[in-house]
Amino acid sequence: MAKKQFQAESKRLLEMMINSIYTQREIFLRELISNSSDAIDKIYYKALTDESLTFNKEDYFIKITADKTNRTLTISDTGIGMTQEELENNLGVIAKSGSLAFKKENEAKDGHNIIGQFGVGFYSAFMVADTVTVISRPLGSDTAFKWESEGADGYTIEPTGKDSVGTDIILKIKENTEEDNYDEYLEEYRLKSIIKKYSDFIRYPIKMDITSSKLKEGSENEYEETTEEQTVNSMVPIWRKNKSELKDEDYENFYQEKRYGFDKPLKHIHISADGAVVYNAILFIPENTPFDYYTKEYEKGLELYSNGVLIMNKCGDLLPDYFSFVKGMVDSEDLSLNISRELLQHDRQLSLIAKNIKNKIKSALQSLLKDEREKYEKFYGAFGRQIKFGVYNDYGMNKDTLQDLLLFHSSKEKKLVSLDEYVSRMPEEQKYIYYASGESIERIEKLPQTELVADKGYEILYFTDDIDEFAIKMLISYKDKEFKSVSSGDLGIDTEEQDKAAENADTENKDLFEAMKDVLGGKVKSVKASKRLKSHPVCLSSEGDLTIEMEKTLRAMPNGADVQADKVLEINVNHDVFQSLKNAQEQDKEKLALYTNLLYNQALLIEGLPVGDPVEFTNDICKIMV
Questions:
Q1: What is the DSSP letter of 22?
Q2: Cα-flanking dihedrals φ and ψ of residue 613, to 5°?
């Protein structure tokens, strides 16, 4: 029989398939099962418009049969089948499956769709098979035809016999090589696992003969092997069920089955979208942080299905980085797929789904914050840092999306509060949202810089995470209220009298403050009278955008050793220590230098900054004791 040649495009594709264009060979089974499902769908479509046809779903299935002796794997379906002409056109020409034309002729409204009967995915069979044989008998015909090919050299078509309508694809599995094990595609457990992984939610039964051991009748310890036909796939995915049918337990079981995590999800989001783009999704907000979440090894993304067929294990394009903790899946009939079905074209449908998902996640988190505060705080303990990083990242592009999800510890409430809660109870005369930064709540509460703001009765937000202040710098303001550090140069709460008194103190003690600045030799930008200190003798404040806490964070990073905030040493002129400074200036310059260094190092320790020379510091302490 004369061998026919593939068209040039198909021949090139076959050559690539034989050399494994796909990243994982196992997906050949996904492609062939998907094609079989589409073939059954075509009968369903015809039955909608042809009164002579009845579609009894129980009669339609896909059967997988492995024959180790002959090294064949057969994928059979009870679908629409193909004529000789269709075999020629569909399997001899790349991606010319006829599905698109068929769909236009048979529009249906119940959600069924056609991925592509014998589209380019069919050729993936050549990754694992030396010979591919297709025996097909079309609906309404008694004649079957056999299409056969050993690869890029071409194919043959001839009449053959077949008892029933449908298609059998018979793969002659390749022999093992030193690099590749092809035997696995003849193993029952391996085939079953591939089907469960990729095709579990195909809407028709995928059947296999499953072998199991049972005790022989009348025997206590002698077993015999029995073979029983079983349906391997679950068929109806949870995301296609009505929400009213499902309980929290069903979603939790799905979470565990899919191994999204070992915890229980705090919240699930079930989406059934039917608008500009049609898709179903089930998303989960985990309870705990994955062990590798804050490492470069962590890979974000949702499982992506096209009409029940798994396309990608983790589609990162569906989640923004700041919501990378979300687990789950998306199933859509509207996605455009490229040659391998593993990589998506960045098309409008995908962008619409991603945008919708982002909004749904934000709404779910806001709902959790409003109605289930304890759960939200648990979530925030695990993933709040990621939300804050999202505010800071991309030059603050996403701050409007995320600002209402932020929580910080409150000096007044002694618990986590939102920015909205803070602003809603601000006194009318309060100009700024005040915050203080430190390593812990306990340390911040002891900071001298908080005294004046606290005495005014204003609430202070405590920043204990190294990303906090960077995120707030990106926000700049919230509901027209600017953020202000209690360590900033101008707190915006001083009266004219206080300003005048501080100005007079700076003028009167100009020589003293200049002398102290000289002693410190460039460690501070200036020394001045403090307007914020009440009971403490000294503190550090900063000028400019870089605060002392930000300096600590940046200096801990590679190449950050030279980062330095513009520090100001503030002296409480109403403290007894100030009189000692004045006396030392008049009577003993060495003592003034001693006191200045001690006060500066004291201010460093209060801020949690390292003392430059610990030995010199301890010697200075000894000097004032003798």
A1: S
A2: -130, 95
Structure tokens at 101: 């034309």
Strands 407-410 and 432-437, by their bridges, are: unpaired
CATH of domain 8-231: 3.30.565.10
Read off the pLDDT of each residue in 384-412 and give the average, rounded to a whole number.
Answer: 96
Show the tokens assigned to 467.
Answer: 């990303």
H or E stretch covering 145: strand 144-149
Least confident residue range of 101-105, 132-136, 364-368: 101-105
Q: What is the 3-state secondary structure (H, E, C) of 461-499?
A: EEECCCCHHHHHHHHCEECCEEEEECCECCCCCCCHHHH
DSSP class of residue 71?
T
For the segment 501-530, what is each residue's pLDDT rounded down to a tens digit?
888 999 999 999 999 999 999 899 999 999
Tokens of 320: 């923004």
Q: What is the CATH number of domain 494-626?
A: 1.20.120.790
In this structure, are residues 17 and 127 in contact, taking their beta carbons and an 8 Å threshold?
yes
**Where is 215: in which H helix or E strand?**
strand 206-215
Which regions of the chain carry the CATH code 3.40.50.11260?
Answer: 406-492
Which residues, in sequence order, are CB contacts of 609 under 8 Å at separation 6+?
548, 552
Rounded CA gap, 583 and 594, in Å? Answer: 13
Using the structure block, give the residue that is written with the tokens 């699930």.
268
- Smallest Cα–Cα separation from 39: which of 83, 4, 9? 83
CB-CB contact of 450 with 460 (8 Å): yes
The reported pTM is: 0.76
| Gap between the Cα atoms of 572 and 264, Å rounded | 54
CATH code of the region 406-492: 3.40.50.11260
| Burial of residue 626 (number of CB atoms within 10 Å: 0-12, 13-18, 19+) | exposed
Distance between CA atoms of residues 411 and 255, nearest Å: 39
CA pair distance 142, 159, nearest whole angstrom:
11
Three-state secondary structure of 520-544:
HCCCCCEEEECCCCCCCCEEEEEEC
- Number of Cβ within 10 Å of residue 292's Cβ equals 10
Domain spanning 240-378: which CATH class is it, in words? alpha beta
How far is the C-alpha of 459 from the C-alpha of 411, rounded, in Å?
Answer: 6
| CATH 3.30.565.10-classified regions of the chain | 8-231
Query: pLDDT tens digits, residue range 566-598?
Result: 999 999 999 999 999 999 999 999 999 999 999
State residue 271's pLDDT score: 96
Specify the residue for token string 């180790």: 68
Query: Residues 62-71: pLDDT tens digits?
Result: 999 999 999 9
Residue 225: what pLDDT? Answer: 85
Q: How many residues does the chain have?
A: 626
Residue 375, burial from CB neighbour count under 10 angstroms (0-12, 13-18, 19+): middle
Angle at 73 between CA 184 and CA 157, to 5 degrees: 140
pLDDT over threshold 70, residue 95: no
Domain with CATH 3.30.230.80 in the chain: 240-378
Phi, psi of 61 (to 5 degrees): -160, 175
Helix (H, G, I), strand (E, B) or coil at 427: coil
Contacts of 532 (CB under 8 A, 6+ apart): 448, 449, 451, 452, 453, 486, 491, 539, 541, 570
pLDDT tens-digit profile of 160-197? 999 999 999 999 999 999 988 999 999 999 999 999 98
pLDDT tens-digit map of 428-481: 999 999 999 999 999 999 999 998 899 999 999 999 999 999 999 999 999 999
